[in-house]
Design goal:
Blueprint lengths: L3 E6 L7 H12 L5 E7 L4 H8 L3 E4 L8 H13 L4 E5 L1 H13 L4 E6 L10 H14 L5 E4 L2 H9 L8 E3 L16 H10 L8 E5 L8 H14 L4 E5 L5 H10 L6 E5 L4 H5 L4 E4 L8 H8 L4 E4 L4 H4 L7 E3 L4 H13 L1 H18 L2 H23 L1
Parallel strand pairs: 1-2, 1-4, 2-3, 4-5, 5-6, 6-7, 8-9, 8-11, 9-10, 11-12, 12-13
């Protein structure tokens, strides 16, 4: 039996949730059944990870502006490599990839929405345009995957695709990758020293792309309130993104330069997660965030906003604390509570780790993706015979 050729496609090569999902699939599919390659822009952590794992990478100059050359390059890759299944991730890759696949009769087309970002656009006309665009592309999409039940509900509400093409496959992680030594006291002390943080100082913060979606301004406003109660605390913000300059400017206006550390993009964010006494997720919307799973894998107490897929992962007061989005007062109050009550904080972290490790495994996610690929390819094969 010939191997099924799969191309996983996303536009940006940084390591956000969509990219982690794509790489997890590419690395974990059954090599006896599938031949997998990936496609993105030409350089970045995603490309490095693909090369490290001997996964073939195709470079395409994706652009948010319509670019004929992008269509042509994708069409060439699809045809010359005889791709059987194209799986696009996110809006830009979904636009170019699905159009090219339709024009070149690719047998199976799958698209994953890692959060329905355009539903949160401030421009109502633009939001409506993207809803109509997704409905149009659904005509030649064999499976539209949502990563949370909340997003599936929205997808059905806005009729983004026929119901028989809608699937929910939740993200999952490999818990064995979160090594105990990286969460040990010795490891934490070493990293605190390198960052100039004393052993007694509480550390809270987030690992996040610096984008409007992530609600970092509300974390900074909450930080000011946290520091009134715990002036010795340090707040770490790990990540890069288009809002960095604005956020650093806000940080200065709030007088937090000596308390908040912007650490930029780091290859091993897990090292910084291990430092947190409380992990904070202040997002305005989410799909099903990987970083929350990673914090849970390390047993971290979590304060998060009660949005979308987050509410499916965290039980308020039992496995974490949920607060309204855009509410720095509630955010600060909850973080202060967990710094003050360490036994309660540890209990929440322990419970979240147990629940996430049972419900959101890499093996379960890959098994569902693999089954879907085989089912859809089997259907397409029978149609062409």
């Amino acid at each position: 039996m010939k191997k099924i050729k799969v191309l996983e496609m996303i536009d940006q090569p940084f390591l956000g949730g969509g990219q982690i999902n794509l790489l997890s699939i590419a690395k974990s599919l059954d090599k006896t059944k599938f031949e997998v390659s990936v496609c993105s822009r030409d350089s970045g952590p995603l490309v490095d990870e693909a090369e490290k794992n001997d996964i073939r990478h195709f470079s395409v100059p994706f652009s948010k502006k319509i670019n004929r050359k992008v269509f042509q390059e994708i069409a060439f890759i699809l045809k010359s490599n005889k791709i059987d299944i194209l799986h696009t991730h996110g809006g830009v890759a979904g636009f170019y990839g699905r159009w090219a696949a339709n024009k070149n009769n690719i047998p199976v087309v799958v698209h994953t929405l890692h959060g329905i970002h355009y539903l949160h656009y401030r421009n109502c006309l633009l939001k409506h345009f993207y809803i109509l665009l997704e409905r149009y592309f659904s005509r030649f999409t064999d499976a539209l995957i949502f990563v949370s039940d909340a997003d599936r509900k929205k997808g059905k509400k806005f009729k983004l695709a026929p119901e028989d093409r809608i699937y929910v496959i939740k993200n999952g992680i490999d818990f064995s990758a979160f090594l105990a030594e990286k969460n040990s006291m010795d490891f934490k002390r070493q990293w605190k020293r390198e960052l100039g943080i004393e052993a007694f100082q509480p550390v809270v913060g987030t690992v996040s792309r610096l984008h409007r979606q992530k609600g970092i301004p509300f974390l900074l406003e909450a930080a000011k309130k946290i520091l009134k109660v715990f002036p010795e605390a340090k707040i770490l913000i790990v990540g890069e993104g288009p809002q960095r300059q604005k956020l650093e400017s806000l940080n200065r206006r709030l007088g937090l330069e000596n308390y908040v550390l912007f650490l930029g993009e780091r290859k091993d964010a897990q090292q910084f997660l291990s430092l947190f006494d409380v992990f904070i997720l202040p997002s305005l919307w989410e799909g099903l965030p990987y970083v929350l799973m990673e914090a849970a894998a390390l047993g971290k107490p979590v304060v998060a906003t009660d949005v979308d897929g987050v509410k499916e992962m965290v039980r308020d007061g039992e496995s974490g604390i949920l607060v309204p989005s855009k509410d720095p007062e509630s955010l600060a109050r909850s973080v202060i509570q967990l710094i003050q009550d360490r036994s309660y904080a540890l209990e929440l972290g322990k419970e979240l780790k147990k629940e996430i490790s049972q419900k959101y495994t890499l093996s379960s996610m890959v098994e569902q993706i693999q089954s879907l690929y085989l089912e859809l390819y089997g259907r397409s094969d029978s149609v062409t015979q």
